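check these tokens.
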Amino acid sequence: MDLTHQLILLAGLLFLVSILATVVTPRVGIPLLLVFLLVGMLAGEDGPGGIEFDNYPLAHLAATAALAVILFDGGMRTSIQSFRVGLRPALSLATVGVLITTAIVGTLSAWLLDLSWAEGLLVGAIVGSTDAAAVFSLLHTRAVSLNERVSAALEIESGTNDPMAVFSTLALITYLQQPDSFGLPAALLMLVQQMSLGAAIGLAGGWLLLHGLNRLPLGDALYPLLALFGGLTIFGATATLGGSGFLAVYLAGLLLGNRRVRSAAGIRRFHDGIAWMSQIGMFVILGLLVSPHRLLPLVVPGLALSLGLILIARPIAVGLSIAPFRFPWREQVYIAWVGLRGSVPIVLATYPWLAGLDSAELFFNIAFFIVLVSLIVQGSTVASAARLLGLQVPPTSARIHRVDIDLPGQRGFEVVSYRLSRNSRLIGSDPHRLESRLPEFSRIVCLARKGHVLDDRAWGPLQAGDYLSLLASQAHLPALDQLFEAPRDPVEPAARLYYGEFVISPQAPLADLCEAYGVEAPEGIGDATAEDLLSRHLPHPVVGDRLRLGELQLVIRKVDGDRPTEIGLRLPH
């Protein structure tokens, strides 16, 4: 019994320390996932904790389950609308990019670590994919607000490149075990089987889970659990049948997150917490698994491989993978830099242990070293790199909270809350008259000011800092967002430096703009408008895209599909 109590105490303390670290680390610019990893290392055999943990099968089981949960949650948080600008480049990065990275890092590994070519490629395959947990957690912080094209490409890549890395790792391990019988045809057959089964079972399982959530009469607390264990069942069934469980669970989450689902907000909140717990547990366990003193002999080759991955392999892979998609050079540089490695390489590094390869310890330690360097060097500079490259888009969201509510005989309604900014167009409005401007069936249910909920007779004109809660249909949330996020001054100081000093109509004639500001008009401009010029050079525009017109810059402020609807004009400094 004493051992049981001690293990519960130890687990609770490790999670508490990791959670409390989330309060401090954002202020000092340290990636949270690195902190979780360090907590595990400090609790391990070389740290003050002194815990000896070398159970690779248990670590593999825990980390794989945690990664499945993280990918399921990441799929639910990925908007299908982002596929308009991010799907094709992300899939290219997730396939061609992983193979290029594997080849370059594999060549360096074979040379620096004195390995055979197959063993070197195995090292490259283990560290070949970016990490979903690291990318999702860093890109969803308040410190980073990127344009849709960059964030979509990075998120979709991190959610879909694990299957290629897993395939490459398993194929190379099988080759090392059976060099005479396992060749290229067998490897291609394995690839087709994993991808096809992963896609088919993931979409079919997601469809069944969606209908189960919407039709089964369960208690409110059981819908999030049904979604969680449904996702794990899809992962396990796919992997058991020889498919890619990671691809399947990501696609199931993607399907679930982009359709109307009963208790949707409750499921999202629950999975947000479960995903955090999975990240903490996974990184702490993987930190326990490593012995820092065994990393010391690998400092020189490990640093060389890490720098080769960050400065050579990743930039080349990104450049070749997204070359057909006409990404601006700043965005290419940023995507190349944010090639974060995290839990996935460490999980893949346990595969050689399970397979009984002779160099399994070397593979694990070198992968762990590369992950440490990636989290320290790249993870701590995600926000500063975005600012340096001019990719930090000013955030505009006023929505702060949403809770789904099942009305009798109805589904798809939520109580959504907004906070009025100092520059909100609604300041000074009468809340009672505001209801006439709300979408159909939307109603104000609460107004809070300075920490107090006001009676509707005491509302008075809206003020900056007011919190409004409304009952609304999920389908009307975009219209409400647009209403509450509309600024009084379209060129407020916070956004003026990014979007420019003025707002112009997309139909503004370019010839008139050039004449008004003394800019030489491009040849063959004719009757072209600002929208024509942007559409010609930016076939899939996103908010924040910019195009130079002489000494002026046209900056897209709003888009509707592939059409810019509001354009900022930046004057020469």
